[in-house]
Amino acid sequence: MGGVVARNERNLPGRVAATVIFGAIMLFAGFTEAFGGDGISYGFRMTVVTLIAFWAFGRGREGDLMNTAVWAFGDRIGFDLGLTAEMAVSSLRRIEKDVRDIRNALKLKGSRGPVYDLIPLGFTLTLMQIHRAREQGRVLATRGGYQGGGTFTPSFHCSKTDIFAFFSSILIIAAVFVSFVGYL
Amino acid sequence: MHLNADKLSLSHGGEWTLSANGIFGGEGVHLVTGPVGSGKTTLASALAGIFEPASGRIVREGVSRLSLSMQFPEYHVTGFLVKDEIRSWHLPVTETLRKSGLEGGRQDRKTLTLSRGELKRLHLACLLGSPPWDAVILDEPFAGLDCKEKRRVCATIEEKRHPVTIIFTHEQAVLPAADVIWEIEVGGTLICRGGRVPPEAIPAWKGAPPRYLTRALEEGARPENIRLQDAKEALCRMHA
After folding, report:
1. Running DSSP on this structure, what letter comes out for residue B76?
2. DSSP β-ladder status, B189-195 and B180-185
3. Which single residue of A51, A56, A117, B60 has CA 20 to 30 Å from A146?
4. Which residues from chain B sit within 8 angstroms of residue A8, using beta carbons?
5. Do A124 and B80 count as a contact with CB atoms less than 8 A apart?
């Protein structure tokens, strides 16, 4: 699984982010195991889910979510869901650059350390996202007259690896289902 | 005191490459122009030491205090209120507000609720009003400002409180007097159009001379520098 995810460098976050995320998972798993829970299983499952999430985020193409949502739920609810998801993902991708730029700006201004920087960084990011969301909303309303739903023709490109990914995802879903039934 | 771009090569995700070789040296104002997307921001970031070049290096001689003004002023904000933001630069609140043209009780406004233009004015007033930097790099300092504010920023730059000022811009209307003109040519090479002798550099400035300069040159005038008033004076001299 790790090999598949790591095949493309874009699939993985930076070293620091990966250390923090996987470190937190291992920490919780360790505590759970130490206090009588099934920490090893938790750690394994969370690692797999996180790697899949990185892969999905890194390999996703613009329009994937819109295509899927409209295909699955139609022009009304599907369009709204797809549009919301696309906007959320594009915001996430912009946040990567925003965080880098804000950290650089704070460094140039005289950073007081990563902990102190977290407050202005989080505050600026949040407000910037709110401003952008408001602007995007206005653009949708004024340029497209958007009120809800829309016309969109989904299109998909299929490659050989997609068939492998399809069967792998069914295996994962089945494994999750079996473990859930076992838990009950 | 100088910043030397030594056989610098900058690449952005393999999409394009910018080559730069030259010295932003001596005291004065360096103006770097180039088309949108030519790599001005990347070069500014590399000179400030926050972007890793693909090859080559930046040599800083006598430059220990350096700052970069990013294109988007909100990145620099650390103060919740306007007065906190000014204090974070260790500057007096009232005087800085006056310099940025933001008087009228705006010291108690939340910094990030200011408009982009107001925030830019505040940020530039703080940066340029700080104790002298050895080198200050301004990335698109005129973006989002009206003509009056652009002139105010130009006047501050022309005071030359900071020994080396490097301006990256594609501004076409209001520019400060420059000592050296640089240009990023199509194809991605930084070229020096002439230093210390702007009258000779101006005709060689191909890509982005403002319209008033082009008109003055077409009429046979030789402006002393790149400001509108320089073009006007050159035309007056010619017709006198």
Report:
1. G
2. antiparallel
3. A56
4. none
5. no
Q: Is the pLDDT of residue B62 over 80?
A: yes
**Spatial separation of the C-alpha atoms in residues A97 and A120, rounded to whole Å:** 16
Over residues A36-67, the pLDDT tens digits come to 888 888 888 888 888 888 877 777 778 888 99
C-alpha distances (whole Å) from A133 to each of A70, A119, A121 are: 22, 21, 18
Residues of A in contact with B77 (CB under 8 A): 120, 124
Give the number of domains in chain B.
1
Q: What are phi and psi of B142, to 5 degrees?
A: -95, -5
Task: Return the half-sphere exposure (C-beta side, CA atoms, 13 A cut-off) of residue A40.
Answer: 0
Q: Which of A108, A115, A126, A132 to probe the B interface (max B CBs under 10 A)?
A: A108
The CATH number that applies at residue B212 is 3.40.50.300
In chain B, where does DSSP find H-type helix? 40-48, 82-88, 93-100, 116-129, 147-158, 198-204, 211-218, 228-239
Per residue in B124-137, pLDDT tens?
Answer: 999 999 989 999 99
Inter-chain residue contact A105 with B45, CB threshold 8 Å: no
Answer yes or no: is B87 within a domain.
Answer: no
Domain that holds residue B156: 2-65+132-239
Mutate to test the interface with A, among B75, B85, B116, B120 (most CBs of A within 10 A): B75
Spacing of C-alpha A107 from chain mean position: 27
Q: Note whether residue B26 is domain-resident.
A: yes
**What SS3 class is residue A81?**
helix
